[in-house]
Amino acid sequence: MKIGRYTVTPIVFASFRLDGGCMFGSVPKNLWSKAIQADTENCIPLVCRCLVVEDGSRTFLVDVGIGNKWSDKQRAIYGISLVPELEGGYKPDKVTDVILTHLHFDHAGGISFRNAAGDLALRYPKARVHLQAANWQQAQNPSPKDRASYLPENVEPLSNAQLVLCDGVAEIAPDIIVHKVDGHTPGQQWVEIRGGEKPLFFATDLIPTSHHLPLAYHMGYDVCAETLLREKLTFLDRAVQEDAVVVFQHDSAVEAAHVALNERGQFGVRTAVRI
Ligand SMILES: [Zn+2]
């Protein structure tokens, strides 16, 4: 997909699964299960969808997937299946800039890997890594609420990366704007790409799947539900007004969509879009 000066390509690094109850917070199962079916262990299928954004001189990677530093036991628990096809056209060496929405393992796990000696190494050693300062702090001293999502093997190697920390809204490159939101975890950032007829909004965990478009549908993982709902409403109001392409990072079926209010006054998919 072309957005102004940029070519935007989705890349799915892995499929995995999480408990459906955790994914829908206070929404009862008899409601969410009408939209998405859980497996025998109550988990729902998810993917790690990231974006490659290129303008001919710089290549941005928005989030880096779940990575490959997983034991067999963890792979079974999370149902992790890495997508092998991406070895084809995707070249880590070309990446000049990594934009991390936040350092939860399903977004930042791919930032490091274990080399032949078993040591942790950066996957994109030459890239600038853009992150909110508040999230960098949170990841080093996580709250009990989301400690399990910040793994030291994803956080510590970043000390050796070319970190570019920002605070709040920032245009990190022409027409690439990051927006700080704190309801899911302090210092998460969603990414806006402008310059074309319609903007693209990469929603990250503010709206992880198309099933999370109705306001009340948010994750039990969110550290502050009230903050998240306010941020989500602001995001969706803008998405409707500007007819943005909203990308769903964890949706196994719907890559992206234009959104609208439906007849019941709830946000939902108006038209699904392939990026
Ligand atoms: Zn998250």
Number of helices: 7
What amount of the residues lies in strands? 25-35%
The first-to-last residue Cα distance is 5 Å
Count of extended strands: 17
Approximate helicity band: 10-25%
Mean pLDDT across every amino acid position: 95
Class by alpha and beta content: alpha+beta
CATH class: Alpha Beta
> What is the fourth-level CATH superfamily?
Ribonuclease Z/Hydroxyacylglutathione hydrolase-like
CATH A-level architecture: 4-Layer Sandwich
**What integer value in Å does the Rg equal?**
18 Å
Q: Please describe the biggest sheet, giving its number of strands, its sense, and whether it closes into a barrel.
A: 8 strands, mixed
Q: What's the number of structural domains?
A: 1
Summarize the structure.
The chain has 275 residues and is α+β, with helices and mostly antiparallel strands. It is built from 7 helices and 17 strands.
What does this structure look like?
The protein has helices at about 20-25, 30, 70-80, 105-110, 135-140, 150-155, 225-240; strands at about 1-5, 5-20, 45-55, 60, 80, 95-100, 110-115, 120, 130, 160-165, 170-175, 175-180, 190-195, 200, 245, 255-260, 265-275. The protein is α+β, with helices and mostly antiparallel strands and about 280 residues long. The chain has one domain (about 1-275): 4-Layer Sandwich (Metallo-beta-lactamase, Chain A), CATH 3.60.15.10. A hairpin with a 4-residue loop joins strand 3 (about 45-55) and strand 4. The longest helix has 17 residues, at about 225-240. The radius of gyration is 18 Å and the shape is globular. The mean pLDDT is about 95. The structure holds zinc ion.
